[in-house]
C-alpha cells in the first residue's frame, strides 16, 4: 500500500514537473527531451533507457499540440496571414536530419559515456552564449525601433517575423499541402527502414541479424535516399522560387541574410544537428532551434519550424516503440497528454508577453534559458553516471557498433 502511494505521488510529481518543462520548452520552440529524461530518471527512478523511450512520447505530445496550435490559430494572427512554419526549410532539411539521427545513434553506441557528456556540455554551453548574444542583438534592434516610433518616425519593417517565403492565397495553401505530402512520404521511407533494422535495443519486425550484411545494406540505403530527396526538393524549390519572383516581388523571401546563403547550408546544418541529436540521445529541437537562429532565421519562424520538424522525428520513434513494444504504454501516454496541454499553455503565455512588450526577442531568451538549464542538468546527471561506471570498474573506452 505504501509502495503504491509513493508510486502515485511520484507519477503526480513527474506530471507537474513535466507540465512546467513542456510549457517552458514550447514557449522557446524546443522539444524538451533534455529536461524530460532527467525528470523521469531522477523523480520516477526509471532506467535511462526507459526514461528515454517515455520522453519520446512526451516530446511528440508537446510538439503535436504546438504544431496544431500554430497551424490553426497563430498563423491567422500574423500580418497578411503569413505562415509561421517555413515549409521550404523543413523540406530541404528533413531528409538530412533523419539521416543524421541514424548516424548519431551509431556513434552513441560506439562513444564512451564520458565523451558524450563532455561533448554535449561543451556544445550546449557554446550554443547558450551564442543564442544569448543573438537575443541581445534583437533586443537592441527592437529598442531602437521603439525609440524611432516615439520620436515620430516609422519602424523599419524588415520582415523579421514573417516566414522566409511568402505563400499567400489559394496557390500558397496548395503548395503547403504538396509540401506536407512530400514530408509524410519522407517520414514513411525512413520509418520503414527503422522498422527493418529496429532500434534502441529492440529487434526489427523482420528479425534482421544486427550488423549482418542485410542490416548494413538497409542502414547505408538511408544515404542515397536522403541525398535523392534533398536534390529533388532543392531543384523543385528553385524552379518555384524563380516563377514566384517573376510573378510578384512579395513572394520573394524576406530581405535578410538568410536569402543570400547557399542552398546547401540548411541540409548540412540539419545533418550535423541530426548527428548530434542521435549522439546525445535527445530530440533535435534543442539543437536545431539555436542553429536556425544563428543562420539568421527569425525567432517565430525558427521556433515554429523547429517544432514542426521535431514532430516528424519524435513521432517516428514513438510509433516504432509502439509497434516493437514498450512496457506500460498507459503511463507514457498520460505524460504525453500532460505535455500536450502544457505546450498550448506555454505558447499562449509567450504570445501574450510578446504582444504586451512588443519584443519577439523574448523567444530567443527563453531558448537561451533552456540551453543553460540543460547544461546544468545533463552535465550533473552525466557526471553521476560516469562516476558510477568508474567506481564499479566498467569499461569506459570506445566500443564496436554491434
UniProtKB/TrEMBL annotation:
Annotated TM spans: 51-72, 84-105, 111-129, 177-197, 264-293, 305-323, 329-350, 362-388
Keyword Transmembrane helix assigned: yes
Predominant place of localization: membrane
InterPro entries named in the record: TM_pro_TauE-like
An annotated GO cellular component: Cul4A-RING E3 ubiquitin ligase complex
Protein's membrane topology: Multi-pass membrane protein
Superkingdom classification of source: Eukaryota
This protein's record includes keyword Cell membrane: no
Record's signal peptide: 1-27
A matching Pfam family: TauE
GO-annotated biological processes: protein ubiquitination
Annotated keywords: Membrane, Signal, Transmembrane, Transmembrane helix
Compartments where found: Membrane
Protein family according to the UniProt entry: Belongs to the 4-toluene sulfonate uptake permease (TSUP) (TC 2.A.102) family.
Name assigned to this protein: Sulfite exporter TauE/SafE family protein
Origin species: Leersia perrieri
Amino acid at each position: 500500500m505504501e509502495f503504491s502511494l509513493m508510486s502515485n505521488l511520484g507519477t503526480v510529481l513527474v506530471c507537474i514537473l513535466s507540465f512546467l518543462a513542456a510549457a517552458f520548452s514550447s514557449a522557446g520552440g524546443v522539444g524538451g527531451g533534455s529536461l524530460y529524461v532527467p525528470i523521469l530518471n531522477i523523480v520516477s527512478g526509471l532506467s535511462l533507457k526507459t526514461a528515454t523511450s517515455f520522453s519520446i512520447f512526451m516530446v511528440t505530445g508537446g510538439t503535436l499540440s504546438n504544431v496544431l496550435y500554430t497551424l490553426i490559430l497563430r498563423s491567422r494572427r500574423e500580418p497578411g496571414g503569413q505562415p509561421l512554419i517555413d515549409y521550404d526549410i523543413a523540406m530541404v532539411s528533413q531528409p538530412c536530419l533523419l539521416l543524421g539521427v541514424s548516424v548519431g545513434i551509431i556513434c552513441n553506441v560506439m562513444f564512451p559515456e564520458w565523451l558524450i557528456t563532455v561533448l554535449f556540455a561543451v556544445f550546449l554551453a557554446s550554443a547558450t552564449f551564442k543564442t544569448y548574444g543573438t537575443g541581445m542583438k534583437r533586443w537592441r534592434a527592437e529598442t531602437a525601433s521603439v525609440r524611432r516610433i516615439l520620436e515620430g518616425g516609422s519602424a523599419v519593417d524588415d520582415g523579421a517575423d514573417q516566414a522566409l517565403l511568402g505563400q499567400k492565397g489559394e496557390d500558397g495553401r496548395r503548395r503547403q499541402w504538396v509540401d506536407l505530402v512530400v514530408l509524410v512520404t519522407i517520414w514513411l521511407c525512413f520509418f520503414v527502414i527503422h522498422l527493418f533494422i529496429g532500434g534502441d535495443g529492440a529487434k526489427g519486425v523482420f528479425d534482421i541479424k544486427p550488423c549482418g550484411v542485410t542490416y548494413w545494406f538497409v542502414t547505408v540505403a538511408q544515404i542515397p535516399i536522403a541525398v535523392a530527396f534533398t536534390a529533388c526538393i532543392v531543384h523543385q524549390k528553385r524552379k518555384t522560387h524563380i516563377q514566384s519572383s517573376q510573378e510578384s516581388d512579395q513572394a520573394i523571401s524576406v530581405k535578410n541574410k538568410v536569402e543570400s546563403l547557399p542552398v546547401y547550408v540548411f541540409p548540412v546544418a540539419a545533418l550535423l544537428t541530426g548527428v548530434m541529436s542521435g549522439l546525445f540521445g535527445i530530440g533535435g529541437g534543442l539543437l536545431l532551434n539555436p542553429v536556425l537562429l544563428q543562420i539568421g532565421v527569425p525567432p517565430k519562424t525558427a521556433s515554429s519550424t523547429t517544432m514542426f520538424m521535431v514532430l516528424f522525428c519524435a513521432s517516428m520513434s514513438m510509433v516504432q516503440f509502439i509497434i516493437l513494444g514498450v512496457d506500460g504504454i498507459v503511463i507514457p501516454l498520460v505524460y504525453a497528454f500532460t505535455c500536450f496541454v502544457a505546450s498550448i499553455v506555454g505558447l499562449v503565455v509567450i504570445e501574450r508577453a510578446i504582444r504586451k512588450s512588443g519584443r519577439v526577442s523574448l523567444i530567443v531568451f527563453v531558448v537561451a534559458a533552456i540551453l543553460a538549464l540543460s547544461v546544468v542538468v545533463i552535465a550533473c546527471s552525466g557526471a553521476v553516471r560516469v562516476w558510477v561506471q568508474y567506481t564499479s570498474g566498467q569499461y569506459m573506452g570506445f566500443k564496436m557498433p554491434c
